[in-house]
Amino acid sequence: MALVCDGALRILDQTLLPHEEKWIEIRSPDDMIREIQRLGVRGAPLIGVAAALALAQYAESGADQTQLKNAAQKISAARPTAVNLMAAVNRLAPLADNPKRFIAEAEAIFEEDVALCEAMAKRASDFIQDGDRILTHCNTGALATVGVGTALGAIRKAHESGKKIHVFVDETRPLLQGSRLTAWELGKLGIGYSLVCDNMAGALMARGEVRKVFVGADRIARNGDVANKIGTYPLAVLAKYHSIPFYVVAPKSTLDPDCGSGADIPIEIRDGDEVRFGKSPRNCEVWNPAFDVTPRSLISAIILDDRIL
Amino acid sequence: MALVCDGALRILDQTLLPHEEKWIEIRSPDDMIREIQRLGVRGAPLIGVAAALALAQYAESGADQTQLKNAAQKISAARPTAVNLMAAVNRLAPLADNPKRFIAEAEAIFEEDVALCEAMAKRASDFIQDGDRILTHCNTGALATVGVGTALGAIRKAHESGKKIHVFVDETRPLLQGSRLTAWELGKLGIGYSLVCDNMAGALMARGEVRKVFVGADRIARNGDVANKIGTYPLAVLAKYHSIPFYVVAPKSTLDPDCGSGADIPIEIRDGDEVRFGKSPRNCEVWNPAFDVTPRSLISAIILDDRIL
């Protein structure tokens, strides 16, 4: 859990993990927008819940209908790719004239995320066999949701049901959600793992070390194309080349009926300093997309909370 | 040029580039072994030359035949994958009874590297067209050789002949030879480039941004399989999937007739701290291979100094 709402609304600063656990109090929608943008709070499902709770807090503090609608519009634009953010805001915005219902709906979004995680993690864990060696990318666990997570939730459920699993964790450049967050979560859960750089996954597969790939999703288009953390697409190509099953685990709220295909999904381009990080020539040109699109043809199954695509 | 031998033998400390240009004086074979192992001096052709010159310096200082042979054996084992190191030592070792010929042979190895680079870079540059957008990995330029380089030498020759080129530079985790060294070289040469993380190359290819891939090699087996910097193999798989030509540029000294296939090439596994670098949970398990093997079937052409395979 990386977000609590017990009187105060607080988020666990994910930029400082695993070496520091610092909670940041959120006092306004603008506070939450800043944390969403700098990835203090991150993970497609979590930023949807975080936005909803920040708006509910604003409603509780007495914001009027116009203020709520403006804040909702602003927070839904904080990051462009994960559809969960817009989906949460779109559920709340029509209730802006009724603070009580507005707040109750935000609480429902929070509670639903826990239930969605349970359902999809349980369903996806059936795809994991005893002895499996699973490659995963980015962070899709308890830090990315308010429940057990998506892809990492499935791994956790399989582990808790007694299956022996080894996980290969892609470090996930540039912001290292794999080495900082997924490794930390796996350690806490007592699940064995090996950390690798993103560019080592191919060699692992060539050696026959990887039995399955499990990833999450930030947005799923109508045709089944999936936007997810940059580096997902090359893993899917490699998995196909090596005949390794490639699974996407996500809640149904990640489906976007308004996107016909992956080409319609807006991809966030982030600051080049995340890639340079003091190592490259200063101010050199950088291309830093935060996500890529994996076509449906490379995906063995998309495992939702309520069905399998 | 990252190595000079003008009275003193000195190497440019490649671990500090691009922000600091510090030259380290080498006074013994052990000094050079240490620098080879910590990648103060790196690049398959360069470490062959560096080993030869360190042994020549030892011969000049009066080392006897036994001392020379022992030092040769020790330095040839400094790193296991790049065959250039063993090839250089194997040329010198039989001359250990004749210091004058021993030293002359080391000087010949140095001078040959310059000529080999010129020849292969010129030959490989014919594969580059005006307007090409080329992806490269690791560093294969003047810092990796004592000449113009291998793959990056070809890009340089094409640029110098007036072809307009844009280069996509893979940062090359874990040690960032792309963002630290290749970006620095391209900047000095005035060749336009964009830096990307290794896991972004797939998205670049999917967008049609990459016309060709050029990489170097650390060892080429008899069947044409190529060992090169970790991350090369997934690029080759991605290039094949996107029907993008994938070229390997190397001197003939990188051919190893004693290796039947890539499976026979020893792959160096390096310290996990290179991957952790203070970001992951302390002491977490890491798999850190420095190289991977690309099968011949994924390579469009291997361009040597004297012929094309």
Explain this structure to me?
With 309 residues, chain A is an alpha/beta fold. Chain A contains 10 helices and 12 strands. In chain A, the strands form 3 sheets. In chain A, strands 6-5-4-7-10-12 form a 6-stranded parallel beta sheet, sandwiched between helices. In chain A, strand 8 (219-220) and strand 9 (226-229) form a beta hairpin. The first copy, chain A, is globular. The two termini of chain A are 28 Å apart. At the A-B interface, helix 7, strand 6, helix 8 and helix 9 of A face helix 7, strand 6, helix 8 and helix 9 of B.
Q: Assembly state here?
A: homodimer
Q: Give the number of helices of chain A.
A: 10
> What sequence of helices (H) and strands (E) makes up the elements of chain A?
EEEHHHHHEHEHEHEEEHEHEE
Helical percentage of chain A: 25-40%
Outline of chain A, from the CA principal axes?
globular
Classify the secondary structure makeup of chain A into a structural class.
alpha/beta
Distance between the termini of chain A: 28 Å
Can you give the mean pLDDT of chain A? Answer: 97
Low-confidence stretches of chain A: none
Strand content of chain A: 15-25%
Rg of chain A, alpha carbons: 19 Å
Largest interface: A-B, 49 and 49 residues
- What's the count of strands of chain A? 12
Strand order of the largest sheet of chain A: 6-5-4-7-10-12
Sheet having the most strands of chain A:
6 strands, parallel
